[in-house]
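Lab notebook, bench 4. The sequencing result for the construct came back, and we need a structural model before the next group meeting so we can plan mutations. Quick request posted to the team channel:

Model the 3D structure of this chain.
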Amino acid sequence: MLVPALVGVAFLVVPLLGLLVRAPWSDAWSILRQSQAAEALRLSLWTSSLATVIALVLGVPLAWLLARSSFPGLRVVRALVTLPLVLPPVVGGVALLLAFGRNGFIGRWLDAWFGVTIPFSPAAVVMAETFVAMPFLVVTVEGALRAANRGYEDAAATLGAGRLTVFRRVTLPMVAPSLAAGAVLCWARALGEFGATITFAGSFPGRTQTMPIAVYYALETDPDAAILLSLVLLLVSVAILVALRDRWLRGGSV
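Done. Here's the predicted structure in token form:
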């Protein structure tokens, strides 16, 4: 078991070491100053964080519904919820464009009634990231709810607690580690999202160009800048994931 495990670690780590080996360290500061890394990183951080908050607000009730309810078509609903996990992100971006684009079946009414145009805006970035990342949260929390001991919830209900109180005071504390793990996975996936974002939000520096998109365009014109931008994104992701794991996921499972 040890050898395959070590091979697995090497398979994941060696490509990342390639970034460190090829990075132009002597000119790193001047290249980063000339690039738009700061704006792209700032945009990626706040949009991925907002996408995670939206996923928490919508995804936790959805996970509860899938785990604790029984109705005709439940399997179909579960398959649809997890579909973005296997769907090519570009296809997700096309679907968002057809639904919320200026000529989409919802977007045209938003534009006509409220003057709201979503595509190629920061809101489109958040929507694309939420669409792709929220299933990670839903799947994690649903699994935890299925494994949780329902006897505690039944006991609280027997003692007179309402459904909302039971959910807030009993259910949520039981699944808190998995909820934190799902949120971290959701945030990490949103931070690295590329295909749906560039399709639905485009690539406008300072407005919709996130770090993965900035890396893609830099790779075509300035490979050294692409390597450094990749390293910045890698270091930020690792630092935040390690910090969150130590704070919230000690003893949990990510």
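The mean pLDDT is 86.
Will bring this to the meeting.
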